[in-house]
Amino acid sequence: MLVGGPAPERPTGDRRVVLGVGEAADAGAAHVAFALREAQARGGDLVAVHARSRQETRQEPPDNGSPAADALLSAAVPARAALESGVTVHRHVVDGPAPQALPHAAQHADLLVLGVRHRHGMVHRELGPTHHAALRHSPCPVALVGVVPGPPTKAEN
After folding, report:
1. CB 120 within 8 A of CB 90
2. Rounded CA gap, 20 and 114, in Å?
3. What is the pLDDT of residue 5?
């Protein structure tokens, strides 16, 4: 967990943990479980946020909502997991690049949680533009939680 400079003034009682959700493979991942535990410990809500890329917005017209992104968020934080933890989960789909959208979504959060994958066989973690932007621009502490990769796919070999 990384904490930047002094925390900005936040409204009291606005306890929430923001979880960045990037891929369908995030479902059941360690960072999702971590975010649920943190929200539960703080007695607050979990806000799962997916930032739709330009490619995603081209594939789904704006007047149609975002069924694919909604399904991705529902799969990442299943209702059963939220119910078991006693945490209220809000799911938000935002349009725009994740490096800008996630720090913005964390404006009134106590914590921003992001998963960090690593390539098969690599010892060090891979931080991308979203991670770097969150670390530089998040108004709250940022937790980077390792996501254990599955077996390598044919494309990775």
Report:
1. no
2. 5
3. 58
Instruction: Kindly report each contact of residues 118-124 with a partner whose C-beta sits within 8 Å and lies 24 or more positions away, as own/partner.
Output: 118/146, 118/149, 119/149, 119/156, 120/149, 120/151, 120/152, 120/156, 121/152
The three-state (H, E, C) secondary structure of the chain, written as one string: CECCCCCCCCCCCCCEEEEECCCHHHCCCHHHHHHHHHHHHHCCEEEEEEEECHHHHHHCCHHHCCHHHHHHHHHHCCHHHHHHHCCCEEEEEEECCHHHHHHHHCCCCCEEEEEEECCCCCCCCCCCHHHHHHHHHCCCCEEEEEECCCCCCCCCC
Looking at residue 64, its pLDDT comes to 52
Q: Residue 118: its pLDDT value, please?
A: 64
Among candidate residues 76, 143, 77, the one with its CA nearest the CA of residue 112: 143
Cβ neighbours, 10 Å, residue 51: 23
Residues of the chain with pLDDT under 50: 123, 152-157
